């Protein structure tokens, strides 16, 4: 028998998808408008607008001991979808009901994605680490789920007295932050005017709390341990510097985390005071200009979705003379400026510096009638973006 248990049919928080009913349609070629084959006014099932409903939650242990290592706590959730499209995924989160330490606002906890066990039951396990769970009790915090139609729910137990929970036996606790004892760069001047480059970073990091160093990051580089132990070891990795990056001195920032979740963040001034590398010089021709669009067109200026879904092709020519266009998206907005629908664009001809991008606005059957404005969103590899109000309109009926 599963225990502890919570039986309820209440849903406390419900957020329904506002994007309409997803409709899978074939790709649309440039200048083409394609209609779905199934009418939406027939005798088929009604649209699913109801979110999943949590009926039962059980935890498979009442007490655990992580002194010898991590422990997996089984969890089962009974959940249904009144709307009929079916539950797509379920996630459970448990944690301590109060901050782990009186001097900290950090809360401990863990989440798990469950798998379907039977029609209504989903199962999985919550892993409690050896160096976590310092407090004596963890309890169910929430169950999140979504159905196939995109309806989403986040449910929390209504009564504290009935919340499923388990206790954690006293065990060693690591409250000590990792420390940096040495930091080296293979070179401190990087020239990326012709091509991208990188800086080899070596860091010696230790942990006196007992859990051991788990991750080391310097700038955007995730380092890996090449020698030593988690208690004290040498970590190494490459800090990438892309062509078109910002020129000038770039400060170094390090983040070191141990297995107990303690985090140390370096400060540039501390590195400098310890005579360790605290910055590197980038020589570059920076890209600070957003992409530009040359032409854009819709395959049709009107769409009839009263009886079937419709996909309308979008074609745009975009240019970026430096890092190149990286992404494009067509957005339909109402006359009041509200977002209504969008579609990603894919490079089909030319290059990222001067190319033709295409996509399709796939409007589901029953999409709200009205006049919509087409907006184009472009971005390059360095994060420069441009929003273009094209002046094109789409009339939906």
Query: Mean pLDDT score, rounded?
Result: 87
Structural classification = mainly beta
Strand content: over 45%
Number of helices: 1
**What does the largest sheet look like?**
9 strands, mixed
Parts with pLDDT < 50 across at least 5 consecutive residues: 1-31, 100-105
Number of strands: 31
The general outline is flat
Task: Give the % helix.
Answer: under 10%
Distance between the termini: 56 Å
The whole-angstrom Rg is: 27 Å
Features:
397 residues, mainly beta, nine-stranded mixed sheet, seven-stranded mixed sheet, 1 helix, 52% strand, flat
Give a quick summary of the entry.
The protein is mainly beta and 397 residues long.
Task: Describe the model.
The protein is an all-beta fold. The chain has 1 helix and 31 strands. The protein has one helix at residues 268-273; strands at 5-7, 13-15, 33-35, 53-59, 63-64, 71-80, 87-95, 109-113, 115-116, 121-128, 137-147, 152-155, 165-168, 179-185, 189-191, 197-206, 213-218, 221-228, 232-241, 248-251, 254-258, 263-265, 279-283, 292-298, 302-303, 310-319, 325-334, 339-350, 354-363, 370-380, 385-396. Strands 3, 24, 25, 26, 27, 28, 29, 30 and 31 form a 9-stranded mixed β-sheet that branches. Strands 2, 5, 7, 8, 11, 12 and 13 form a 7-stranded mixed β-sheet that branches. Strands 14-16-19-18-17-21-22 form a 7-stranded antiparallel β-sheet, with no helix packed on it. A hairpin with a 4-residue loop joins strand 21 (254-258) and strand 22. The protein is flat and about 70 Å long. Mean pLDDT is 87; it is low at 1-31 and 100-105.
């Amino acid at each position: 028998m599963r225990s502890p248990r919570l039986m309820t049919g209440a849903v406390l928080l419900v957020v329904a998808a506002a994007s309409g009913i997803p409709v899978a349609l074939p790709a649309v070629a440039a200048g083409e408008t394609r209609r779905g084959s199934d009418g939406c006014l027939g005798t088929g099932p009604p649209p699913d607008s109801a979110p999943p409903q949590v009926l039962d939650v059980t935890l498979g242990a009442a007490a655990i001991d992580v002194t010898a290592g991590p422990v997996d706590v089984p969890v089962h959730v009974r959940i249904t979808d009144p709307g009929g499209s079916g539950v797509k995924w379920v996630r459970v989160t448990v944690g301590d009901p109060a901050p782990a330490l009186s001097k900290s606002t950090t809360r401990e906890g863990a989440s798990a994605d469950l798998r379907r066990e039977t029609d209504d039951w989903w199962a999985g396990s919550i892993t409690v680490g050896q160096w976590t769970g310092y407090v004596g009790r963890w309890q169910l915090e929430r169950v999140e789920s979504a159905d196939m139609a995109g309806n989403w729910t986040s449910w929390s137990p209504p009564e504290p007295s009935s919340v499923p929970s388990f206790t954690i036996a006293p065990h060693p606790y690591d409250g000590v932050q990792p420390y940096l004892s040495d930091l080296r760069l293979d070179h401190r001047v990087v020239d990326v005017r012709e091509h991208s480059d990188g800086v080899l970073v070596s860091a010696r990091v230790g942990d006196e709390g007992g859990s051991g160093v788990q991750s080391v990051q310097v700038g955007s580089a995730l380092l890996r341990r090449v020698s030593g132990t988690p208690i004290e070891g040498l970590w190494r990795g490459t800090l990438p510097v892309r062509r078109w990056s910002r020129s000038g001195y770039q400060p170094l920032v390090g983040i070191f985390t141990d297995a107990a979740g303690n985090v140390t963040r370096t400060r540039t001034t501390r590195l400098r005071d310890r005579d360790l590398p605290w910055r590197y010089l980038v020589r570059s021709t920076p890209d600070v200009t957003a992409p530009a669009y040359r032409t854009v067109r819709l395959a049709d200026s009107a769409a009839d979705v009263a009886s079937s879904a419709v996909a309308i092709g979008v074609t745009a020519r975009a240019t970026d003379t430096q890092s190149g266009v990286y992404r494009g998206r067509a957005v339909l907005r109402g006359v009041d400026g509200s977002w209504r629908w969008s579609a990603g664009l894919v490079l089909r001809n030319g290059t990222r510096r001067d190319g033709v991008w295409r996509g399709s606005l796939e409007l589901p059957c029953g999409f709200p009638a009205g006049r919509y404005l087409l907006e184009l969103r472009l971005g390059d590899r360095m994060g420069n973006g441009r929003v273009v109000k094209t002046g094109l309109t789409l009339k939906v009926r």
